[in-house]
Amino acid sequence: MIEGRFCWLKDFHSVATRYDKFARNFLASVYLAAIVT
To answer: What is the pTM of this model?
Structure first.
């Protein structure tokens, strides 16, 4: 169930691998990915 919920994050490579050092930038990437999908 959890895997299915976060499966869409794999479409966004930077979100899935978390290249951002700062939590604020990572959270912004997650929000952007959620808006796009």
So the answer is: 0.43
Dist. CA 30–CA 16, nearest whole Å: 9
Residue 24 reports pLDDT greater than 70? yes
16-37 burial: b if 16+ Cβ within 10 Å, else e? eeeeeeeeeeeeebeeebeeee
Q: Label residue 35 by pLDDT band (50, 70, 90).
A: confident
Separation of alpha carbons 33 and 37, rounded Å: 6
In this structure, the dihedral spanned by the alpha carbons of residues 12, 27, 2 and 14, taken in order and rounded to 10 degrees, is 20
